[in-house]
Amino acid sequence: MSSKIAKTNVRTHRSVIVIAQEESKLKAIKLREQKGTLNVLWAKSSEDNEANWQDFAAKCGLSAKPTAFKGANSDKAVVIGFNSAGVAFYRISAPAVGKEETASIIKLQAETRMPLPAEQMEMAWRADQMRNGQVGFIVAAARKKPLEEFLGNVRNFEPTKILLDCEGVTKAWKTFFCGNEKRAVVVNMTARNTQVCLAEDGRLCNAMVLDIGMEDLAAEGEEGQMQTSERFIQDMRSVLELFGNAEQAELPVFLLSDGNATHVNIVSSLRSAGLNARVALADVKGLRTSNEIGVDGIYEYRVPIGLGLMAFETSKNELNIFEHIYRPTSKKEKKHWIYSPKIACGIAAVMLVLSLVVFCGVDIASPGAIEKHLKASASDADLNSLMQRQKLIKSVAQQRPDLLELLGQISASGEKGIKLESFHFKKGQPVTITGEAPGNEQLYKFEKNLQDRKNINSVKMNPSRDAKTKKIKFTITFHYRNFTKK
Amino acid sequence: MIEKLSQKDIRTLKIGAVCVAAIIVFVFANDWFDYWKKARTSLAELNNKLELIDVDKAKQSGLISIVPKFEMPIEAEDQKFLFVDKLTEQFKKAGIKNQPLKVASTGKSKQAGYQLLRMKCSATCRLTQALDLLANLKDNPYLVGIEELRLRIDKKKPQEVDMDLTVSTFVK
């Protein structure tokens, strides 16, 4: 059985404290899941008629101060069971359509069945099996006000989940009462009430609460007992009809039991009335309990145990009628230390210091390394003469005009008919050329061409007309690179 | 021990530790900063040296195209003799009959430790010969540069030019 738990459930919490109310009594249990085995660490119950949530929670080690609790119980879940006596369950069928469409269909159908306007009600639903192209839904609905009052009692413990106790009954039956049947009715009898749950594949798919309990059935007086028993059988028949079972003899009915004789009698009565009733005894294999609690106590705490089992499941497929009015405080996810801002700043600071050390280290070590390398390549004398030679070559290159290039540029700029008479270059003075041009047009073109040359600039022209030849004599000055500038 | 300390004590200890660290850093940082500054200066000097020696290929080929041959300057008399000798050879090679080279001036140069000796000469030749000479002058390993060049075309003989040339060399 324990291996079954391990296979089907993915645990989110290592331990869970469950508190559920059974009539006028509060019952709590602490469970721990370890290597597929469920350990009952402790179980507590309040005295009859002393169902004070605050006091009982304090006895269970739950602080009413939210902050104190959060810090101390980071991996512990708290689950509260809500008595489903005030919850109505409906079965609804809807075609297999999208999520939003399904929601509106279910709401619409459920609202027609609910006794109060929708704004005064809270509801939750869950899909189960598909039949003839229709998806079956279980809808749980309850008045908003009692839910809010209940929340007022339990909100301070910041419960991780608030679950319907009939879901816990079904879960406990499936796990610890050999609930292997695909479809069965589970009867959970308390002193004054009886929960009748229809389970399919181990999940609740309908429920009803009868106001007949053990006290009524075990009442003194044979006649009275007979009458109560008949009423109970009649109620059970009605419930089974309501669950949609015409063939009542076929549907197994399990009465959760600790082996009490009254349970056996009730089952006998049901069987004699034609129902397929059986006693379901607890099978506690795989459930470790302390000596204090004992195996007998497991029946007593069947509802909290069932709810605890549900708390270990990761699937959020429970009927949560508190969904819109209570949101559990989400515990901060424990982030990896690498994402801590302090660590990040520390790493950044260390990297900055390292970068500075490396930067300075390179600066300090480089001169020595370069000198060593230079000494290895050449002696000091060679090195100095090499540097001196290189310096002089650079200086010569800077002082050496390429006059052949200059003459070539002047020649290339000349227009047809232009005759050069002289050329004069001297460092620190503008270059001067004189000559003769046939006309102004050629002369200006010549000037423009010179101006466009890459290394020639500040071209100035001084033309004059020769009276004898009628030709234009000119003198042009310009600068060549930086050689002719002072 | 540390569990007994209050939050205030822990904060005081942290601030104290930061102050101690700051004092230590301040004491050592000054000396260290000077040392680092010296290292930086020394590195800059060495980098300059390296830059002089280790000229990149493009720059080096540019230098070679302008100064294909170069001899380190020597004492003035020897340098002058070698320079004149090479120049005369180059004139001859160009087929120019020049007048004797004369010292035009000796003055300061931009290079510390060297003077600039200017030599002047005149010649009459064809323009092509003058251009040939100009093209070959850079092969003179003692030449620094052409200081002055004057070309005048003879109106009667347009193929001939009167050339005045002043060239320079480094001398010690």
Would you give an account of this structure?
The complex is a heterodimer of chains A (486) and B (172). Chain A is an alpha/beta fold. Chain A has 4 domains: 1-177 and 284-330, Nucleotidyltransferase, domain 5, CATH 3.30.420.380; 180-281, Nucleotidyltransferase, domain 5, CATH 3.30.420; 339-398; 403-480, Alpha-Beta Plaits (2-Layer Sandwich). Chain A has 15 helices and 18 strands. Chain A has helices spanning 2-8, 53-59, 66-72, 99-113, 144-154, 165-176, 214-217, 222-242, 261-272, 296-300, 302-312, 341-377, 380-399, 403-413, 440-452; strands at 15-22, 25-34, 37-45, 76-82, 88-95, 121-131, 134-143, 161-164, 183-189, 194-200, 203-210, 252-257, 276-281, 287-289, 419-426, 431-437, 456-465, 472-480. In chain A, the strands form 4 sheets. A 6-stranded mixed β-sheet of chain A has the order 8-4-1-2-3-14, sandwiched between helices. In chain A, helix 6 packs across helix 11. With 172 residues, chain B is an alpha+beta fold. Chain B folds into 2 domains: 2-54; 69-171, Alpha-Beta Plaits (2-Layer Sandwich), CATH 3.30.70. Chain B is built from 4 helices and 4 strands; from the N terminus they run αααββαββ. Chain B has helices spanning 7-53, 57-66, 76-94, 127-136, and strands spanning 102-108, 115-126, 143-153, 160-171. In chain B, strands 1-2-4-3 form a 4-stranded antiparallel β-sheet. In chain B, helix 3 (76-94) crosses helix 4. The mean pLDDT of chain B is 89. Classes of the chains: A alpha/beta (486), B alpha+beta (172). The interface between A and B is large, with 37 and 42 residues. Strand 15 of chain A pairs antiparallel with strand 3 of chain B, so a sheet runs across the interface.
